[in-house]
Design goal:
This protein has 13 helices and 18 strands. The chain is of the alpha/beta class and about 475 residues long. The longest helix has 23 residues. The chain is globular and about 60 Å long.
Length: about 475
């Protein structure tokens, strides 16, 4: 993905490229439901090779700390060691070999998590040769995995890191009813995507309702209507239910079917559904469809009308991954309001997330959240920084099935941490240092820790010759 001049980091990365995690499938995948054949639905033939970069203990001292769970601590310390959060507070027992960082006047948060990204599958520069996010050959392409399109050299990974993004879910595009599996990555330097693959993260399944599938397939045999969309979903899950039934039986289930494996694992609850859907009425239909076939939607994405059914989303434990203010770019997005996320968030038990769906927006997700705070203030809804940070961290982690590993500054969790120059929801906020599993991978004051993609190496020389 990127190169850094730091020799120790490079050496660690070379080691990690040859390593392999002990698990051959995501930890969230069930190995106890049904037969061995059912467990095999989520066996990973391309397992993560990610290994944390070794680093000394680090103490961020004297900061304002937002723990990601709703607490704000003033003049507090954050201790990281062996890739984990050790403690947050004051009067900590600090190892003698700890690197002490003066964080007075600065703010510390968990690393930002983007639940909806296309980095690597629609990388920069945006050329047709790089357009690998939509398999537009059939309305249902559950057999494809976004991870097999990821280009680790995408310069967008480095710019996202500079914006404080430590983990991200890469999804297929929304051309198809069912676009395939998404994958969660750690935002680290690697030659291969397996070296970035978040260990223990379940896959996501990208689904899309509304205008996109009927526009793409209207002249390709359908679906050409919204009722055609739903009929297509139902047909796909009817087939998947039959496949799962065969897998649960002792009889020979025939040859492998990659499409049915993904859909059956979704029905089994081992793959999480992430559903592109704008209109409230369509979200309600999709919730009913999920009940019909026995799966659960983890999050609706984009959802400009999510505010209209915020109570139902909260009651059914469904998150909403939303923009601050995108609207009006197609008919199904016209009824958006700037208070959308706030209303989803205010419903008892609501799970609101700020997402990007953009190689540029991912660089400033903190500012997107700040817009939402400002929009709320104008109508008398005041949101504290310690609450708003949840939209960028723990709520995203929850929807991706990794909240037990990251998303908050709790002892024992991954030390994915951002040191900001001030309040992260200020217009002047900058991520000064970014740590992933306790290793400092970005430092705004150190050029050696401002990674560049292999693709960008030498570009300055070429531009100089052109002048």
């Amino acid at each position: 993905m990127h190169k850094t001049a730091l020799a120790a980091a490079c050496a660690a990365l070379l080691l990690s490229a040859c390593a392999s995690t002990s698990s051959s499938k995501p930890a969230a995948a069930s190995a106890t439901q049904g037969s061995k054949k059912v467990a095999a639905l989520t066996t990973d033939a391309y397992p993560s090779t990610y290994q944390p970069i070794p680093s000394a203990p680090v103490l961020l001292a004297g900061a304002t700390v937002l723990d990601g769970l709703g607490k704000r601590l003033e003049n507090a310390d954050v201790l990281m060691a062996e890739g984990k959060i050790v403690a947050v507070g004051s009067g900590l027992d600090v190892p003698q070999n700890a690197v002490r960082v003066d964080a007075r006047g600065k703010w510390v948060t968990p690393g930002i998590i983007d639940v909806h990204s296309h980095l690597g599958v629609y990388p920069s520069p945006a050329a047709s040769a790089h357009s690998d996010g939509n398999e537009m050959t059939a309305p249902v392409t559950a057999q494809v995995w976004a991870e097999h399109s990821i280009w680790p050299q995408d310069p967008g990974f480095a710019t996202a890191l500079a914006g404080g993004v430590t983990s991200l879910q890469i999804l297929p595009g929304s051309a198809n009813l069912i676009g395939g599996r998404g994958v969660t990555l750690k935002n680290v330097y690697s030659t291969t995507y397996q070296g970035m693959k978040f260990p223990g993260a379940p896959w996501g399944l990208k689904m899309a309702c509304g205008e996109n599938p009927k526009r793409v397939y209207g002249n390709k045999g359908g679906p050409s209507t919204r009722m055609g969309n739903i009929a297509g979903f139902r047909a796909a899950f009817i087939e998947a239910a039959e496949y799962l039934k065969k897998q649960n039986s002792d009889k020979d289930s025939g040859k492998r079917d990659l499409k049915q494996e993904t859909l059956a694992a979704t029905l089994n609850g081992d793959i999480l559904v992430h559903n592109h859907c704008y209109r409230a009425d369509e979200m309600a239909i999709m919730l009913d469809l999920a009940k019909e076939f026995g799966f659960r939607i983890s999050a609706f994405h984009h959802g400009v009308e999510a505010y209209k059914l915020a109570d139902r989303l909260a009651a059914e434990g469904v998150c909403a991954a939303l923009w601050a203010d995108w609207w009006g770019f197609k008919m199904e997005s016209f009824d958006g309001i700037q208070e959308n996320l706030l209303l989803v968030d205010r419903a008892p038990g609501g799970c609101a997330i700020v997402h990007s769906d953009s190689g540029e927006g991912i660089q400033r997700l903190n500012q997107e959240a700040a817009k939402i705070i400002a929009n709320g203030r104008r109508i008398g809804i005041d949101t504290t920084p310690e609450h708003a940070i949840r939209w960028l961290t723990i709520n995203a982690a929850k929807s991706m099935g990794i909240d037990h590993l990251t998303g908050s500054l709790e002892p024992g969790k991954m030390a994915d941490v951002v040191l900001w120059n001030g309040n992260p929801f200020s217009s002047y906020a900058l991520a000064e240092q970014v740590y992933i599993d306790g290793a400092k991978l970005y430092d705004r004051a150190d050029a050696r820790l401002q990674p560049k993609s292999d693709f960008l190496l030498g570009q300055e020389l070429m531009q100089g010759e052109a002048r």
